Amino acid sequence: MSRAGRPTQTTPEQWVQGALDEIEAGGVGALAVESVSRRLGVSKGGFYHHFHNRRALLRAALELWEEQFVVGLAKRFDAIADPRERLHALLYHASVELEPTVIVRLMAANADPDVADALARAADGRLGLLARIFRELGLSRATAAHRAVLAYSAYLGLAELRTQTPRALSTPARVRSYLRDVEATLLHDV
User: Fold this and answer.
1) Long-range interactions of 73-78: CB distance < 8 A, separation 24+
2) Cβ 110 vs Cβ 119: under 8 Å
3) Does residue 172 form part of some domain?
C-alpha cells in the first residue's frame, strides 16, 4: 500500500475484473482505462504494464466473462447427473439467482467484432449444453436442438425484459411461476 492508502501494484487479473465490472455497470462503451483505474483506486499508468490498449483489456474481460459465465457454469451444471434436475437447476439459476446484466450489455454492443465473437461462442456453448440435456431426456437430435433454442431464447428474453420492465417479474412468486411455465413448456412431452 502507498502512503495514500492505494495499492502499489495491480495485477492483470484485477484490471480484467475491473473491466468486466465496468462493462456490467455501464456497457462496453463505458469501458475506458480511466474508468477502470478509478474503480480500482489506482493511476492508469499501471495499466500499460499489463495491456497494450483498451482493445486488449476488452478481449481479456470477454475471456473472463466466458470463463465465469459460460465454461464455469457449464461445468457446474454438467456435474448434476440427472438431466431433469440439471435443467431445473440451470433454469433456476438463470431465472432466480443470476442478474444477467453483462450479457444484456454485451448484446447491446454486438456490432463490436470481439463482442460478437464472444456472444457467438457463448451461444454455441449454452445451446450445446441445453441440447445435451434434452437428448439425455430422450428427445431426438432435432427436437433437442429446437428445445435448446427455446430455452436459451427464454433466458435472453428474460434478461432483456428485466432491464426494460423490471416490474414484470418483480416478486419471487412471479419468478417461480414464470419458471414453472417455462419448464412445463420445455418438458411437455418428456
Assistant:
1) 74/125, 74/126, 74/129, 77/129, 78/129
2) yes
3) yes
How far is it, in rounded angstroms, from Cα 171 to Cα 190?
A: 29
CA 50/CA 188 separation, integer angstroms = 51
Comparing CA positions, the residue from 29, 41, 131, 15 lying closest to residue 83 is 131
pLDDT digit string, tens, across residues 5-36: 555 588 999 999 999 999 999 999 999 999 99
Q: Examine residue 7 and state whether it is found in any structural domain, yes or no.
A: no
Instruction: Give the CATH number of the domain where residue 167 resides.
Output: 1.10.357.10
Domain residues for 151? 12-186
Q: Which pTM value belongs to this model? A: 0.89
In a domain, 112, yes or no: yes
Which of 121, 10, 108 has its CA nearest to residue 63? 121
